[in-house]
């Protein structure tokens, strides 16, 4: 019994791990973290997105990424794109490696900005491996509704 079957209480139904399933190529847990996939951990750089009264704030954990290797862009005033690369360190051939867990490679994250975002006022900082992107909201002007009071007779 596979681990998914055990999770389902032993039931074996047609699931996404079945090779004949059309969903197999979308995500296969057996392929996550393959040694050949140098971008696996960075391709999904962890990003938090929170909204305040005045702005949308994105925070991305990018340890080891230098400011020069990072790009923050806005496409068509709608899509916030964060991309970059963690460059592999120079290796000394005389060193004996016991473990290599940190990964290098490129990453790319894209977010559709909401209607109230002001793409012309975006600011960002990189500090201690954390990228902060602040997207201010467009100030809403109070609607001048022409309201008149009607007396009840």
Short account of what is shown:
The protein has one helix and seven strands, in the order αβββββββ. The protein has one helix at about 5, and strands spanning about 45-50, 55-60, 70-75, 80-85, 105-110, 125, 130-135.
Q: How would you describe what is shown here?
A:
With 153 residues, the protein is mainly beta. The chain has a domain at 32-87 and 102-139: Immunoglobulin-like (Sandwich), CATH 2.60.40.790. The protein contains one helix and seven strands, in the order H-E-E-E-E-E-E-E. It has one helix at residues 3-7; strands at 47-51, 55-61, 70-75, 79-86, 105-112, 123-127, 130-136. A four-stranded antiparallel beta sheet has the order 1-2-7-6, with no helix packed on it. Strand 3 and strand 4 form a beta hairpin. It is rod-shaped. The model is unreliable at 11-17 and 20-42 (pLDDT under 50).
| SSE topology string | HEEEEEEE
Question: What are the low-pLDDT stretches, counting only 5+ consecutive residues below 50?
Answer: 11-17, 20-42
Individual helix count: 1
User: Taking strands numbered 1, 2, ... along the chain, how are they ordered across the largest sheet?
Assistant: 1-2-7-6
Oligomer: single chain
The rough form would be described as: rod-shaped
Pfam family, one: HSP20
Keywords: Stress response
Protein name: Seed maturation protein PM31
Family: Belongs to the small heat shock protein (HSP20) family.
Secondary structure layout:
Layout: H1 3-7, E1 47-51, E2 55-61, E3 70-75, E4 79-86, E5 105-112, E6 123-127, E7 130-136
Antiparallel strand pairs: 1-2, 2-7, 3-4, 4-5, 6-7
Domain SHSP: 38-153
Pfam families: HSP20 (PF00011)
Keywords: Stress response
């Amino acid at each position: 019994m596979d681990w998914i079957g055990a999770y389902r209480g032993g039931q074996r139904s047609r699931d996404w791990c079945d090779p004949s399933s059309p969903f197999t190529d979308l995500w296969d847990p057996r392929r996550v973290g393959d040694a050949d996939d140098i971008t696996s951990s960075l391709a999904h750089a962890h990003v938090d997105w929170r909204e305040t009264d005045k702005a949308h704030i994105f925070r991305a954990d990018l340890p080891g990424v230098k400011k020069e290797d990072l790009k923050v862009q806005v496409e068509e005033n709608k899509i916030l794109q964060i991309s970059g690369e963690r460059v592999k360190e120079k290796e000394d051939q005389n060193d004996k490696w016991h473990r290599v867990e940190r990964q290098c490679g490129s990453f790319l994250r894209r977010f559709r900005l909401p209607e109230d975002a002001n793409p012309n006022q975006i600011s960002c900082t990189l500090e201690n491996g954390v990228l902060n992107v602040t997207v201010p909201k467009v100030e809403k002007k109070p609607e001048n509704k022409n309201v008149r009071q009607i007396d009840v007779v």
